[in-house]
Amino acid sequence: MKTWKWLFILSVLFTLGNTIVDVQYWQNGLPFQDNGLSKIFRFGRTLIIATMAGILYYHQSHLKNVRLLLYAFLLTVVADGFLILANLLQIGMLFFIIVQVLLILRHAPPLDQLKKNKVKVLYAFLTGTILYTIIYTLIGKNPIDLPIKDPILKYAFVLVVSLISAQLAELRPEFTRSQSQKIFWGMVFFFLCDLTVVLPLLFSENELALLARALTGLLYTPALLLLVLSAKKENI
After folding, report:
1. Is the torsion defined by CA of 167, 170, 174, 180 positive or negative?
2. How far apart are CA 50 and CA 28, in angstroms?
3. pLDDT grade for 138, boundaries at 50, 70 and 90
C-alpha cells in the first residue's frame, strides 16, 4: 500500500527533523519544548503514525487486537497533545496510563496460556519486578523534591506491567512470532523513550540527561512504528 509506505517514510523524516532542531537547542542550552517547529514535527509524527493505525483498522476492523491498537493510538494523539502542545505533563501521563492499559489488553495472554507456560510467566514477572524496583529506587527514593513523583511511579508501574504483557505476547494464539517480536521491541523502545523523559526531571543539571531528552524521538518513533507494524498483514 503506497499511502501507508509514504506515511511510514514521512514519520521518519518528521522524527529526524525534530531531532535536529532539539539537538541544536540542547547545544545552545535552550528548552526545546518551547520551540514551535519542534512541536510541529513531534506532534505531526504522532498524527502520521496514528493515521497508519487507522488505515490498518479500515482493512482489519474485524480483529479485536487491531481495534485496541487504534484506540490506543487515538489516545496517544490526545496524550501527546497535552504533553507536546500544552506542556501539561500530568494530564498527558493520565492518558498514557489508559494507552498502556489498552496495550495490556491487546498483548496479555489468556489465563489458560499463562498456566501452561509458568516458567516464561515467572521469568517475565521477575524481570518486571526487578525493573520496577530499580525505577522506584531512582525516583521514589530520590532526594529531589519532585511534585509529580507519585504520578510518575504510578505510570511506571502500569508501563512495567505493559512491558511484561508484551514479553508474553507470543503466548497469544492470534500473534505470529514476527508480530510478537515487534510488540516486545516496540514496548522496549516505549520504556526507554519514557526513561529519557524522566531523566531531566531527576538530573536537571546533567548534560547527558538533557541530551537524552533531546533524542527522545529516536526511541519514541520506533516504538510507535513497531507497534503499528505488529498489526500489519503482508497484503496490506
Report:
1. positive
2. 32
3. confident
Whole-number pLDDT of residue 100: 98
Nearest of 208, 195, 221 to residue 10 by alpha carbon: 221
What's 105-121 look like in SS3?
Answer: HHHCCCHHHHHHCHHHH
Written as one letter, the residue type at 136 is Y
- Asked whether the predicted pLDDT for residue 50 surpasses 90, the reply is yes
**pLDDT (tens digit, 9 = 90+) per residue, 82-135?**
999 988 888 999 999 999 999 999 999 998 998 899 999 999 999 999 999 999
Per-residue burial over 156-170, b = 16 or more CB atoms within 10 Å of its CB, e = otherwise: bbbbbbbbbbbbbbb
**Which residue type occupies 193?**
C
Long-range pairs of 63-71 with CB within 8 A, sequence gap ≥ 24:
63/174, 63/231, 65/106, 65/172, 65/174, 65/175, 65/231, 66/231, 68/102, 68/103, 68/105, 68/106, 69/102, 69/103, 69/106, 69/227, 69/228, 69/230, 69/231, 71/102
How far apart CA 221 and CA 215 sit, in angstroms, is 11
**Secondary structure element (H or E) that encloses residue 133, with its range:** helix 118-135
Question: What gap in Å lies between CA 45 and CA 210, rounded to an integer?
Answer: 21
Count of CA atoms in the C-beta half-sphere (13 A) of 60 = 21
* Residue whose C-alpha is closest to residue 154's, from 169, 143, 164, 140: 140
The average pLDDT across 65-74 equals 97
